[in-house]
Amino acid sequence: MSTHAEIKRVTVPQLRACKGQRKIAALTAHNFSTARIIDEYLDFILIGDSTAMVAYGLPNTLSITLEQIAQHTAAVVRATKHACIVADMPFGTYQESLEQAFRNAAYLVSHGADAVKLEGGAVMAPTIEFLVARGIPVLAHVGLMPQYVNTMGGYLAQGKTPDAAARILGDAKAHEQAGAFGVVLEGVAEALGTEITEQLSIPTIGIGASVSCDGQILVTEDMLGLSGERVPKFVKRYANLEESMRSAVQRYADEVRASKFPEPQHCFAVKRS
After folding, report:
1. Contact at 8 Å (CB) between 172 and 196?
2. Could you list the active site residues?
3. Which of 197, 202, 200 is nearest to 182 (CA)?
4. What is the pTM of this model?
5. Does 88 carry a binding-site annotation?
């Protein structure tokens, strides 16, 4: 009989209980290898619609499909044991009706997601309430919303004027009242991020918001230096894995061409004198 203690995933209620107790650390993942490495250090992992850009090279998040997010979610679930798993709902999969939103959110849950994330202002509060009442936890997302890139005119910081700040604060409060367990604040003025965090009873997860937020999330490729030279202002690079990978691949290619790899220890049934 095994004596090892069972590793239990972080739950949505545990994430919510972090408010005022400790900070929440989160990153994105879209493949088995990355998720396996980052799992033990994080409270939740997001299968973001940013997968469209970092995994498929698409210009924005708008064209990734529900089926693609579901398959990436399943891969991340298989790789992990600890972190809560949150899946992004792609553009066009929840805005049409409450029934559409539930059907597609349930599809992501069936692939292993513990919760879903959706973008939008107060207009999405009824959708959040509908999903939560039917057993699907929801992480809201306000401020700079990549799925609204066309109406916002680009990836522009939000909440810089009193009216804009008041609107985003109202959005966050509406989502809290609707039953969201947390709110992602992206690309908002620092003072606004602090104010929303102070006024909500649920955790705020910052990405380009404020250090006062109850937690932080980044796109993993950005913080590891795997997304090219241009990164958002709010990203801190904790490594330069692109440089390391280039160096390793160059060494490999050089050794192959010089017949230095494989060596005898990398081969089978090598006769030795």
Report:
1. yes
2. 186
3. 202
4. 0.95
5. yes
Q: Is 19 annotated as a binding residue?
A: no
Please state the length of the chain. 273
What domains can you pick out in the chain, each with its CATH number?
12-239 (3.20.20.60)
Q: Is 242 annotated as a binding residue?
A: no
- List the pLDDT tens digit at each of the 273 positions of the chain: 444 556 699 999 999 999 999 999 999 999 999 999 999 999 999 999 999 999 999 999 999 999 999 999 999 999 999 999 999 999 999 999 999 999 999 999 999 999 999 999 999 999 999 999 999 999 999 999 999 999 999 899 999 999 999 999 999 999 999 999 999 999 999 999 999 999 999 999 999 999 999 999 999 999 999 998 888 899 999 999 999 999 999 999 999 999 999 999 999 987 766
Residues 6+ apart with CB under 8 A from 123: none
- Helix (H) or strand (E) holding 171, with range, is helix 162-178
